[in-house]
């Protein structure tokens, strides 16, 4: 079963605009990660936020985490055509195996 | 450093045939994962190895899927016999998995399987 659910399922924006994707999850977590997947490729790790953090930045990426609402958001600022990809949130549960459970993803299209 | 290698990249078979996928993780990564990603969905974990031992295979359809990781390095995933619903991308990932730290997984490019 998929723990995280991304919203929206698809997002289309113009180059230069900001893109915001949301993720909701169901159970307690150690951390939450965001991955990007270009068409036909494997997933690439973008950013990790721990359960005791509320906000984290990496370049043009900003991630927030609200553990009380079991939700996270990924903001990509000043988007580029190269940001076109699927974005997945993944939760790292509190079990010792430390497995990641992925959501269903948001397909982002950035139009030039 | 070299990334996670997978082969083949594409495979087309008929139902009831068998198929095998190979994965070579990043050097030094003790943990290896196999995921199944159906079109339009996120990856679903099939099996997790720590060195050459299985940590979790609860979502592996064991009547037709098998996996091994000999000598704690390379791994193979086999499907025998394949069904139409096995059509998916099979992703391999590896990580260092520090018990008290966060686990970043590094993914290979995947093998796209089409079962006709």
Report on this structure.
The complex is a heterodimer of chains A (112) and B (116). By secondary structure, chain A is an all-beta fold. In chain A, 0% of the residues lie in helices and 58% in strands. Chain A contains no helices and 11 strands. In chain A, a hairpin with a 6-residue loop joins strand 9 and strand 10. Chain A is globular. The model of chain A has no long low-confidence stretch (mean pLDDT 91). Chain B has 116 residues and is mostly beta strands. Chain B has no helices and 11 strands. In chain B, the strands form 2 sheets. In chain B, strands 2, 4, 5, 6, 9, 10 and 11 form a 7-stranded mixed β-sheet that branches. Chain B has a 4-stranded antiparallel β-sheet with strand order 1-3-8-7, with no helix packed on it. In chain B, strand 4 and strand 5 (44-50) form a beta hairpin. The mean pLDDT of chain B is 92.
